Amino acid sequence: MPEVTFLVLLAFGCLTGVTTVLFGFGGGFLTVPVVVAVTGDMHVAVATSTAVMVVNSLAATVAQARAGRIRRSYVWPLIAFIALGAAFGSLAATRLPERVLHVAFIAYLVITIVDCLARNGFLHRPLETPRKLGPVTRTAGGVGIGAVASALGVGGSVMTVPLLRRSGLPMTEATAMANPLSAPVALIGTAIYAFAGTGSAGRAGYVDLIAAAALLCGSIPAIALTRRLTARIPDRVHAIAYLAMLAGVTIAMIVTP
C-alpha cells in the first residue's frame, strides 16, 4: 500500500474513532466511502468496514459502559434479533451487484435523514421519562436492523439511534447503546465476508486486512481520547451534528463513482 494511501486511511481511522464515540457509527459511514475510493470495490469496502466495526464497537462499548451510559433493558433482547438479521443481510450482500449496494447505501442515508427531519422526536427529545421498546420493535425491528446494517456495512446505528431517541433517551445514551447493538452485525458480517470472497494477497475473503489495520491504528487511540467529550455536548447540538455527519457521508457516496 502506498504511503500516502496509508496516511489517508489512518486519518480517516482517527475520524472513525471520534464518530464511534459521539454518534455510535462504529466506522461504517466513513470507512465505506474511503475504502471504495482506495480499492474501487464496494464488496471489499463493506466487508472491511464491518471488520473495523468489530474492534471499534467493542472498544466503545467498554468505554461507554464505564461511563454508565448503557441501559441493559434497551440492549437485550434487541441485540439477539439484530444478530439474527445480520446473518441474512451478510449472505444477501455477497450475492448483490456492487452498483446495487452503492445505490442502496445512498438511499438508506437519504431516507434516514428525511425521516429524522420530518418526524417529531429526533431533534427535540420527546419524553422526559423514556418508554420501553415494544415486543414487535425488539423482534421484527431487530431482525430488520441487522439485515440492512450488515448488507451495507454500517452497523445499524442509523436505525438504532433514532429508535432509541424517539423512545425518550438523550443523545448521549442513544449513541452509546448503538455500539453494543452494532457488535453482532460486525462479528457475524465479518465472519461471512471473510469466507465469501475468493481472497488474494492482503485479504481474507472480501476483507482488506491492510486497509483495516490502517483504519484501526487511527480509530483505537481516538476512541480513548474522545470518550470524555460526549457528556459536554448539548443534546440538541448533538442531534444536529449527527444529521450533519450523515449528510456529509451521503454527498461523499454520491460523488464516488
Structural commentary:
α1 crosses α10, α3 (42-66) packs across α9 (171-196) and α3 runs parallel beside α10 (209-226). The protein has helices at 3-23, 28-39, 42-66, 72-75, 78-93, 98-118, 135-152, 157-166, 171-196, 209-226, 235-255; strands at residues 203-204, 207-208. The chain is an all-alpha fold. The chain starts with a helix and ends with a helix. The protein is built from eleven helices and two strands; from the N terminus they run αααααααααββαα.
Topology:
Blueprint: H1 3-23, H2 28-39, H3 42-66, H4 72-75, H5 78-93, H6 98-118, H7 135-152, H8 157-166, H9 171-196, E1 203-204, E2 207-208, H10 209-226, H11 235-255
Antiparallel strand pairs: 1-2
Helix pairs in contact: 1-2, 1-9, 1-10, 2-3, 3-9, 3-10, 5-7, 5-9, 6-11, 7-9, 8-9
Structure keywords:
257 residues; mainly alpha; two-stranded antiparallel ribbon; 2 strands; 75% helix
Q: Give the structural class.
A: mainly alpha
- Binned, the helix content reads over 70%
Order of helices and strands: HHHHHHHHHEEHH
Q: What separation lies between the terminal Cα atoms?
A: 21 Å
Count of DSSP E strands? 2
Structure summary:
75% of the residues lie in helices and 2% in strands. It has 11 helices and 2 strands, in the order αααααααααββαα.
